[in-house]
C-alpha cells in the first residue's frame, strides 16, 4: 500500500485485516464485531474487507463479539475484534476467558471515558480496568505505531512461549479520528512477518476435548503459574519479534519503553499514548534551556517493563508520572506500578503523580510545564495532583 494519509481507526482496521488475510493458507480468520463510538470505523473497515478465507460476524453486543472471536480462535483461526469504554466493560467476562484459555486474540481498544455520565473522550480507565487479566497491553502514540504494534502483537501473542491475547490501544479522537501519514505495508510483507497460526490446543473433532470444565484448586493454580511463566517470557519474545519486524519492514516498531534524553536526566517524566508527543516537545525545549530532564513513554504496560524502567531512570532523583486515568481514591494506575517497580530498588527517588487529561481533557504544553515546575521544586511526594480542574 505504501504511505497514506489515514485515521487511527483506518490504520487499525487495515492492520487487523492484513494480519487475518496472512493466515489464509491455514485456518483463515474470523471475528465478531459490534460498533461503539469511537471505534466503529475499525469494524466497518474489516466488515468490508474481502478475505480469501475468513468471516466477519456482526452480532448483537460486545459480549457476543468476543464470544465469536473466542470460538474462532479455539477453532484455530487468527482472531481479533475491537471495542471501547462501556463496550469493553460489557465484554469483560469473555475478555477474561480469552486470557485464561490462552488464545492469541488481538483486540484494538480505543480509550474512551467510562460512563456515566456519558463521555466519548479519551481516558485510559477502560483498558486499565483489565490490567490484572492475562492480556498484553500496548499503548500507542501515533497511527503508525497502531499499525506496527498490531502486527507485532499477533506475532508475540501467537508465539508458543506466550500464547496470550493482546490489547493494542489508542486515544479516542486524538488518534482514532485524526489523519496522519502512515505506512500501510503491502500484504506480501505482512505474509512474510506473520507465520500461519497453528494453535497447539485448537479444537479437533477427531480428538474431542472439553474446554472450560470444572477444575480443582490445585489444577487451577497450576494454570495460573503457567500464565505467569508466559508473562515472564514476553520481554525476550517481544525483542525477537521486534528485530524480525525491523528486518522485514525496515522500520523499528519501538521498544517496550521509549527513553528520550534520560541518560543524564535528574528529572524524568513518565507517560503514555499521545500525551508523550506534547511532553516530548516540552522536554526538548527545557533541554535547550539547560535543564537536565528526560521523558519515558510507556509503550508496553503489561507485562510491566520494570527492569527497563529502572535502567532508564538510574540517574534520576525526581520522577513525575502523567496519568490519563484514575483509580478511585488511589490516584493514577501507571504511578502505582512505577512506585512498585522502584520499591526496594531505589527508595530515595521522589515519585509524584499528576492526573492529566483524565476524562478527555486537553494536555497542553503549559500544563506539562506546570508539572515540571512543581516537580523540580518538590522535596517530598504528596497525594496525586489533579491538573486541568478549573478554579
Structural overview:
By secondary structure, the protein is an alpha/beta fold. The protein folds into 2 domains: 248 residues, Rossmann fold; 129 residues, Rossmann fold (3-Layer(aba) Sandwich), CATH 3.40.50.920. Helices cover 40% and strands 19% of the residues. The chain has 12 helices and 15 strands. α10 crosses α11. The longest helix is centred in the middle third of the chain and has 33 residues. It is globular and about 70 Å long.
Question: What's the helical proportion of residues?
Answer: 25-40%
The level 1 CATH classification of the largest domain is Alpha Beta
Which regions contain 5 or more consecutive residues with pLDDT less than 50?
none
- Overall shape: it is globular
Write the CATH homologous superfamily of the largest domain. Answer: Thiamin diphosphate (ThDP)-binding fold, Pyr/PP domains
| CATH-defined architecture of the largest domain | 3-Layer(aba) Sandwich
Could you describe the largest sheet, including whether it forms a barrel? 7 strands, mixed
Rg value: 21 Å
Q: What series of H and E elements makes up the topology?
A: EHEHEHEHEHEHEEHHEEHEEHEHEHE
How many domains would you count in the coordinates?
A: 2
How many H/I helices? 12
Distance N to C terminus: 49 Å
Percent range for β-strand residues: 15-25%
Give the strand line-up of the largest sheet: 3-2-4-5-7-6-12
- Overall mean pLDDT stands at 96
Structural class: alpha/beta
Amino acid at each position: 500500500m505504501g504511505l497514506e494519509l489515514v485515521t487511527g481507526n483506518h490504520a487499525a482496521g487495515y492492520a487487523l485485516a492484513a494480519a487475518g488475510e496472512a493466515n489464509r493458507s491455514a485456518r483463515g480468520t474470523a471475528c465478531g464485531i459490534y460498533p461503539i463510538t469511537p471505534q466503529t470505523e475499525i469494524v466497518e473497515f474489516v466488515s468490508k474487507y474481502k478475505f480469501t478465507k475468513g468471516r466477519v460476524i456482526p452480532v448483537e453486543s460486545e459480549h457476543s463479539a468476543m464470544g465469536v472471536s473466542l470460538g474462532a480462535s479455539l477453532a484455530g483461526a487468527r482472531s481479533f475484534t475491537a471495542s471501547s469504554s462501556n463496550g469493553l466493560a460489557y465484554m469483560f467476562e469473555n475478555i477474561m476467558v480469552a486470557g485464561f484459555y490462552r488464545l492469541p486474540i488481538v483486540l484494538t481498544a480505543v480509550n474512551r471515558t467510562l460512563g456515566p455520565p456519558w463521555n466519548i473522550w479519551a481516558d485510559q480507565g477502560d483498558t486499565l480496568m483489565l490490567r490484572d487479566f492475562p492480556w498484553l497491553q500496548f499503548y500507542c502514540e501515533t497511527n503508525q505505531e497502531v499499525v506496527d504494534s498490531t502486527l507485532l502483537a499477533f506475532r508475540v501473542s501467537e508465539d508458543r512461549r506466550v500464547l496470550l491475547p493482546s490489547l493494542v490501544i489508542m486515544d479516542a479522537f486524538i488518534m482514532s479520528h485524526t489523519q496522519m501519514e502512515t505506512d500501510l505495508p503491502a500484504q506480501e510483507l505482512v505474509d512474510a512477518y506473520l507465520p500461519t497460526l497453528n494453535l497447539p490446543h485448537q479444537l479437533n473433532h477427531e480428538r474431542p476435548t472439553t474446554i472450560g470444565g470444572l477444575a480443582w484448586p490445585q489444577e487451577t493454580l497450576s494454570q495460573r503459574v503457567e500464565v505467569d511463566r508466559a508473562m515472564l517470557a514476553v520481554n525476550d519474545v517481544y525483542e525477537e519479534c521486534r528485530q524480525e519486524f525491523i528486518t522485514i519492514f525496515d522500520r523499528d516498531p519501538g521498544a517496550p519503553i521509549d527513553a528520550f534524553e534520560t541518560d543524564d536526566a535528574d528529572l524524568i517524566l513518565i507517560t503514555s499514548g499521545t500525551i508523550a508527543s506534547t511532553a516530548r516537545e516540552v522536554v526538548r525545549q527545557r533541554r535547550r534551556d539547560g535543564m537536565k530532564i528526560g521523558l519515558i513513554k510507556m509503550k508496553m504496560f503489561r507485562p510491566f517493563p520494570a527492569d527497563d524502567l529502572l535502567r532508564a531512570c538510574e540517574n534520576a532523583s525526581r520522577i513525575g508520572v502523567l496519568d490519563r486515568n484514575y483509580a478511585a481514591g488511589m490516584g493514577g494506575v501507571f504511578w502505582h506500578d512505577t512506585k512498585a517497580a522502584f520499591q526496594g530498588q531505589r527508595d530515595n527517588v521522589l515519585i509524584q503523580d499528576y492526573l492529566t487529561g483524565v476524562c478527555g481533557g486537553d494536555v497542553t504544553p503549559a500544563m506539562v510545564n506546570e508539572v515540571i515546575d512543581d516537580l523540580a521544586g518538590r522535596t517530598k511526594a504528596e497525594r496525586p495532583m489533579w491538573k486541568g480542574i478549573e478554579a
